[in-house]
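To close the section, here is one more complete example, presented without commentary so you can practise reading it yourself. The ligand is D-malate.
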Amino acid sequence: MRALVNSVHIDFEEHGAGVNVLLIHGFPLHRAMWSGQIEGLKKCARLIAPDLRGFGKSDVPAPPYGMEDFAEDLNGLLAHLRVERVILCGFSMGGYISFAFQRRFPEKVAGMVLIDTRADADSEEARGKRLEMAEAIRQRGVELAAETMVPKLLAEQSRRHNPDLIARVASMIRDNSADGVANAQLAMASRPDSTSDLGRINCPVLIVVGDQDALTPVAVSEAMAARLPRCDLRIIGGAGHLTPMEYPERVNAAIGDYLRNFEETCRG
Ligand code: MLT
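Output:
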């Protein structure tokens, strides 16, 4: 399915019935990263999974754009679907976008599931590396993103013993255009620090993180959890950064338990 929002075609899929859950993918992936969650959770929730601008089958608009633009697109998509309140489920970059959405449209956020993500902005060094990487990807193509990101996304165990998962992740990255991936790098480099928002987020929050996540380590999630007024933290043993694809059943169990807080719309 496709919706025109903010002059950008956003491609998305929708499954199941129950509480509205917006699945916001990470970088440099697309909505197919959620296939395990869609399979496991569609019996208890209405799952809406878009390709963000610049990814998958959605349009790649001209830069610059930032986290707020991704959030505006998602708000436009929800309006298109006549969804008034939603649980945001954001993985990594999807978490950065969730914070931007929550800042802009707090009344629309019924809950948040933050998976392998962080609230703080980039250091100067990290920002510099993103700018270099964006330029290199534009020049050498998206294959460079596949080469550099796959090892970072997966735990050692997955890299050694799960060639099928490696192939699926690499192929998903290659589905994207170099420009879309580079534009998102620049968008993440300029994202604001959301740490000071955490104390004001009053909805129930679930944080999920892989115990071997090297990009957003457990300590980062623990620090976020300590600031959030209503937060549960679930650590997934054996997972790296890409926890929803590495251990879909364990992630689904954590999200399923969380969704049971929303009894009126989700009966598990
Ligand atoms: C992601 O998984 O979305 C990225 O690792 C986020 C980032 O590069 O900060």
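Once you have examined the tokens, check your reading against these statements. The mean pLDDT is 96. Strands lie at 2-5, 8-15, 19-24, 45-50, 86-91, 109-115, 205-210, 231-236.
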